[in-house]
Amino acid sequence: MDFTHHVLTYLLVMMACASSSSFNKRPNILIILVDDFGFADMSGNWSPQTVPSNTPYLESLADNGIRFVDFHAAASVCTPSRAALLTGRLGKRTGVTRNFSPFSVGGLPTNETTFAETFKSAGYRTGMVGKWHLGITKEFHPNSRGFDFYYGLPYSNDMGCSDDPGHNIPIGNPCPKDRLGEEDPTYPGVPLYYNESIVAQPVNQTSLSKRYAEMAVKFIKNEQDDKPFLLYVALTHMHVPLLYMDHFKNKSLNKGIYGDTLLEMDNTVQTIVSAVKEIGQEKNTLVWVAGDNGPWEAKCELGGDPSPFIGVWQKLEGGGGSTSKMTVWEGGHRVPAAVYWPGTIKGGLISEVTTSMLDIYPTIASLANVTLPGDRIYDGKDITDHLLGKPFPKDRVLYHPNSGALGSVPGDFGAVRVGDYKAVYFTGGIADCRGKLGKAESHHPPLIFNVREDPMESNPLDPGSKLYQSIYAGMKEAMIDINASLKNDNRTVADYTEDPNAKPCCNPHHVVCRCQD
Ligand SMILES: *[C@@H]1O[C@H](CO)[C@@H](O)[C@H](O)[C@H]1NC(C)=O
Ligand SMILES: *[C@@H]1O[C@H](CO)[C@@H](O)[C@H](O)[C@H]1NC(C)=O
Ligand SMILES: *[C@@H]1O[C@H](CO)[C@@H](O)[C@H](O)[C@H]1NC(C)=O
Ligand SMILES: *[C@@H]1O[C@H](CO)[C@@H](O)[C@H](O)[C@H]1NC(C)=O
Ligand SMILES: *[C@@H]1O[C@H](CO)[C@@H](O)[C@H](O)[C@H]1NC(C)=O
Ligand SMILES: *[C@@H]1O[C@H](CO)[C@@H](O)[C@H](O)[C@H]1NC(C)=O
Ligand SMILES: *[C@@H]1O[C@H](CO)[C@@H](O)[C@H](O)[C@H]1NC(C)=O
């Protein structure tokens, strides 16, 4: 009797496993990119004991998965960062080294291959919700770059006017209501696309995060043909202007605009990830959350903490300039990241290994058994073993491109990371939020920091020391390596031509192209 009971239990367990949709199936991939997300915006990254969290849900994802504390953006401004995420290649290879504008004719070159294109060919259902910023004309639109479904903004939410002017510096950018007697705004109203159609212009940015969550949930729940899905969500938060639903007003712990926006962002992520659970796919879905680059120092005016990386830059920037977005300082490059995959990835892991947004494409491809195009060189690495808890080499080399600083060519490497050390070749040239511009300066020999011990970059090594000499030799080698790799690669040139006629406009009879859904 007892024996039969055990056998029965055993059989039931076996059947439960076999019928579960997570059994022997390629995983769903959910990538969530948070705009201008500073390292310490995820408070657990900085000091879990003392800093109150305005991102409680993200903290729980990280605590039940892997939290990366030395994870880097591939560039410190939107367009090149996103191009690198989608291709696994640096801007020097794809040609995408600076932002596209609302008048850009070109985009991410079409002979570069996005992960959406690869996954779609491999039978995945592909969707994107949010900010694209890799070209607006048909050829470069997300629907032409591998996404079956698209809902979002073609570029940043400050690249145009709005009917709900938000928190920006200077405050807001209101759209004129009528055509007559108006000044011509620089850009048209910020447009919202559903696939290839503009459905609202200017978009209501107050409710945008809510709509993103709804559309992402709709995509996730629209299961078809038992196909796995790949969904890329590129949130508007924390990019200025900051706007959010009244529901979150004064709900954050510091009751400021910045904290409230963080809280709405966190809630948006929760709504999206919960949909995966609701359809019973939580154990078959890899969720990867990351920032696209460091924060803009809007924080200093909007009630957030200033950038936590406050080291030597203060002196170098002569009281002006920035350590955040667009710089090669840690504040520009080191971003929050976490991977959550219950049942496959053990919870509670904190990874101090140097990793990059460039690693996402090779890693998800490997997990999904999808092959990357072989006729080019990738800067990203497959870190599957690391996700699964195996040791990973610590001598990673990363190149940080100039992402908009004056006085240096965009895409050229302003800093190089080898293991624990980082050489900084270029400083200054980026204004802080009060408009102060640090002096653009080249450093030959470079400043070298041990960013493992000194993440604030406060104490450059003494150039006369033996340690400096040996580290510097390694840095020079790394530069020679990348030069050789670039020379041997199939590289692309991106078209940065601008034409006012290329702008997205759903109503050419109105000065800001106004139309509403
Ligand atoms: C967007 O495209 C997808 C895939 O073609 C389609 O299923 C969906 O209905 C389209 N949506 C709209 C609003 O055109
Ligand atoms: C934008 O959406 C919010 C929230 O739904 C609403 O309160 C506000 O009136 C809308 N703005 C405009 C200009 O319609
Ligand atoms: C938020 O708090 C501030 C300061 O305490 C107050 O002036 C404001 O009215 C509050 N806003 C809301 C929506 O509760
Ligand atoms: C991966 O794909 C290859 C070739 O298509 C196939 O032989 C192999 O079984 C697949 N592996 C897994 C784990 O699905
Ligand atoms: C570049 O493309 C050519 C032609 O497609 C190919 O033969 C070559 O192997 C590629 N180079 C690299 C580095 O993959
Ligand atoms: C690498 O190439 C760049 C650009 O061509 C050049 O300025 C630099 O000197 C090269 N560095 C090394 C170490 O060869
Ligand atoms: C893309 O096209 C350009 C121009 O035809 C070529 O030089 C480059 O090698 C191509 N890049 C890739 C990745 O194939």
TrEMBL record:
PROSITE patterns: SULFATASE_1 (PS00523), SULFATASE_2 (PS00149)
Name of the featured protein: Putative arylsulfatase G-like
Protein origin, superkingdom: Eukaryota
Alphabetized GO MF terms: arylsulfatase activity; metal ion binding
Pfam family, one: Sulfatase_C
Co-factor(s): Ca(2+)
InterPro entries attached to this UniProt entry: Alkaline_phosphatase_core_sf, Sulfatase, Sulfatase_CS, Sulfatase_N
Domain annotation Sulfatase N-terminal: ranges: 27-370
Record keywords, A-Z: Calcium, Hydrolase, Metal-binding, Signal
Protein's organism: Stichopus japonicus
The family this protein is said to belong to: Belongs to the sulfatase family.
Cleavable signal peptide: 1-20
Phylogenetic classification of the source organism: Eukaryota, Metazoa, Echinodermata, Eleutherozoa, Echinozoa
